Amino acid sequence: MVGTTLREIRRSIERLASDDGEYDVVCARFGEQPVPVAGQRFASRTEAADAARATEQYRAALRRYDPQLPFYDPIVRQTRADTEGHVDDGSRNTTADRERRRRQSAERMHAVATDSPLIGFCHDVSGAVFEALSSRDHERVERAIMDTYLAAAEATTDRNALCLVLLETIATELERHLAAAERTRLLWAAAANLSPVDPADDPVATSLAYLDSLSLIGTYGVTRESVETTDEDSWTVTLRRYAIDGRERRFPTLPIGIDILRRTAQPTASLGVREVTALGDGDWQFVVTSGERASGGLVCTRTHAEDR
Q: How far is CA 63 from CA 128, 163, 264, in A?
């Protein structure tokens, strides 16, 4: 499967990286750092250029899983002032670089038309999960996801919605094929593959605010309760107009769970989702819990109605 290549490419980028390097890699069109090079710095322009090429290889390999993955044009950027007092933004490219981008421009026009923060987030999450599946030798689950996704994609008329269909498929197939403990371990591994973010004092509220900004959810409400004697927290959450279809039987929590995990300060923290209720029309209510007794539900959770 492609996953082995993904893992090897990411490791090659990590070997090139330097904690105090003055170069990084960004998209020439948007100025953002795409996965898997996000958050990485490099000591020399040569190493950064190698990382940019590796990034293109990584995303080309991932596109075999997800044909709708947005195209990026990774270039090298110097983030400290050069000898003339200017910041090198990577614009001084060779003629060959400019010609290469010109040849790709027609292909990227489709990506520009469909690109959005939500679509980019969905593709990053799916890529992170596929990479984690491959690193944990779950080839059978990868095939199950792709078989189900391709069948669902044929029935999807809105091409921009395919990334949401993919996330719903991933969540459902992980719940179907993996035990609860392995799903949790897999999600922690996938969260580590995403672009790094600062840990949050309240990872649930911070994550919901971020997902709201992406329009993955319409509106939301969250109430936090803490138990000082047990050092446990619980959050009662209500979502309105969740963009992923759970068909009121299963709640695909995957994008919520993975984003909460990457904002959690302690990578070994126990978190779980329970008491899920489908309110209809894409509205949900559930409880997120932390502490020793909290586990499961961060990928896909059955509703109360189905449990009964």
A: 13, 12, 29
Mean pLDDT by 10-residue block, N- to C-terminus, for the chain (308 residues)? 63 89 90 85 94 89 73 86 42 46 38 61 89 89 88 75 89 93 92 89 95 94 82 90 81 95 81 90 91 79 61
Q: Which two tokens stand for residue 228?
A: 């000082």
Whole-angstrom CA distances from 182 to 134, 179, 257, 279 are 14, 5, 14, 29
* One-letter identity of residue 98: R
Here the tokens at position 35 are 């996965």
Residues 200/206, Cβ–Cβ less than 8 Å: yes
Q: For residues 283 and 239, is the Cβ–Cβ distance under 8 A?
A: yes
CA distance 36 to 31: 15
Question: What residue spans define the domains of the chain?
Answer: 2-110, 120-307
The model's pTM is 0.69
As a whole number of angstroms, the distance between CA 204 and CA 157 comes to 33
80 close to 45: Cβ distance less than 8 angstroms: no
* Angstrom distance (rounded) from CA 184 to CA 40: 26
